[in-house]
C-alpha cells in the first residue's frame, strides 16, 4: 500500500506525492503520478485535503444493515447526490455551522473512493483500474433543511454547505477494503463501527454504474454511503472517522462565522 497526501508549502504552492517516513516524495499530480525527484520534509508543510475533487458523488442506502433498520429496499442502482467542490475540507479543519442555521447537524462516517483516470461507461474491470485509492469521509448534513420544503427534498443544499465534506488525511492505494471496519467517534465515544463488506455495491461496482450516468474525472471522489450509528454534532464537538490502514480523520464543529486564518488559507489552496 502507498500513502498519498497534498500539502501547502511555505510559498503558498500545493504539492502532492507519496508519503514515507516523514517525507513527501513529490509527484506531478494525481492525474499524472510521475515523480518529480523532489523529496520534502512533511514537518515543513501544511496538510490539505488529499485531493481536490471537481465533484463528490455521495451515495445513500448503500449498506444492508442500514437499509434493514430503515426498512428500505436494497437499490438496484446506486442512489446518489452531488456535493460541490467548495464543501471539501481536510483533516483538522473546522466544520462551520451555516450562518443563521440553528438546527441539527449530522455526521456520517464513510469510505471514500478517489478516481485516478477519466471514466465513462466503464466495465467492472475498467472501473477497478480507474480507482486511484481510498480515503476517509465525514459526509455532514444540515438535517433540518432536508425536508424543510415539503414539496422538494433539499439533499444538495442540506449536504452542500462549505466545510460539509471532510476528507483525508490521506489516500491509500492498494487498500484491501473487504476485511476492514470503519469506526466513528464523537468526542471519543464510539458511535459507528461497521464492516465495509456490508456494502450493497462494491467500490468497482459503484464506479462502473455511476460512470453510466456521468463522467468521472481524475480527483473526483465517491462517498460510499454510511451504515447505522449516524448522529448529531453539537458546537465544539469533534468527530473522528477511522479505518485501520488509512488513518484517522478528525474535525470539530465550530459556531457560525468562526473561521481561522489557517482554515481560510487551506481552503484557498485546495482550489488550486
Automatic annotation (TrEMBL):
<dbReference type="Pfam" id="PF01557">
    <property type="entry name" value="FAA_hydrolase"/>
</dbReference>
<dbReference type="InterPro" id="IPR036663">
    <property type="entry name" value="Fumarylacetoacetase_C_sf"/>
</dbReference>
<feature type="domain" description="Fumarylacetoacetase-like C-terminal">
    <location>
        <begin position="55"/>
        <end position="253"/>
    </location>
</feature>
<dbReference type="GO" id="GO:0016853">
    <property type="term" value="F:isomerase activity"/>
</dbReference>
<keyword id="KW-0413">Isomerase</keyword>
<dbReference type="InterPro" id="IPR011234">
    <property type="entry name" value="Fumarylacetoacetase-like_C"/>
</dbReference>
<protein>
    <submittedName>
        <fullName>2-hydroxyhepta-2,4-diene-1,7-dioate isomerase</fullName>
    </submittedName>
</protein>
<keyword id="KW-0479">Metal-binding</keyword>
Amino acid at each position: 500500500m502507498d500513502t498519498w497526501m497534498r500539502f501547502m508549502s511555505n510559498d503558498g504552492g500545493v504539492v502532492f506525492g507519496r508519503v514515507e517516513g516523514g517525507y513527501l516524495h513529490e509527484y506531478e499530480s494525481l492525474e499524472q503520478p510521475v515523480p518529480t525527484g523532489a523529496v520534502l520534509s512533511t514537518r515543513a508543510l501544511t496538510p490539505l485535503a488529499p485531493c481536490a475533487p471537481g465533484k463528490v458523488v455521495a451515495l445513500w442506502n448503500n449498506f444492508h444493515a442500514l437499509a434493514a433498520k430503515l426498512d428500505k429496499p436494497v437499490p438496484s442502482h446506486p442512489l446518489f447526490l452531488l456535493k460541490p467542490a467548495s464543501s471539501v475540507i481536510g483533516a483538522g479543519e473546522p466544520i462551520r455551522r451555516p450562518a443563521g442555521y440553528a438546527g441539527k447537524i449530522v455526521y456520517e462516517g464513510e469510505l471514500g473512493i478517489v478516481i485516478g483516470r477519466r471514466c465513462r461507461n466503464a466495465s467492472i474491470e475498467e472501473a477497478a483500474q480507474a480507482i486511484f485509492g481510498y480515503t476517509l469521509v465525514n459526509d455532514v448534513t444540515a438535517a433540518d433543511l432536508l425536508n424543510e420544503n415539503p414539496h422538494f427534498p433539499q439533499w444538495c443544499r442540506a449536504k452542500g454547505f462549505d466545510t460539509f465534506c471532510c476528507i483525508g488525511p490521506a489516500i491509500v492505494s492498494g487498500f484491501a477494503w473487504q476485511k476492514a471496519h470503519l469506526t466513528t467517534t464523537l468526542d471519543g465515544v464510539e458511535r459507528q463501527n461497521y464492516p465495509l463488506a456490508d456494502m450493497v455495491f462494491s467500490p468497482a461496482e459503484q464506479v462502473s454504474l455511476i460512470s453510466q450516468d456521468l463522467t468521472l474525472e481524475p480527483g473526483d471522489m465517491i462517498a460510499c454511503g454510511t451504515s447505522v450509528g449516524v448522529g448529531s454534532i453539537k458546537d465544539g464537538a469533534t468527530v473522528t472517522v477511522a479505518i485501520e490502514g488509512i488513518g484517522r480523520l478528525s474535525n470539530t464543529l465550530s459556531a457560525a462565522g468562526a473561521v481561522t486564518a489557517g482554515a481560510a488559507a487551506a481552503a484557498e489552496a485546495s482550489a488550486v
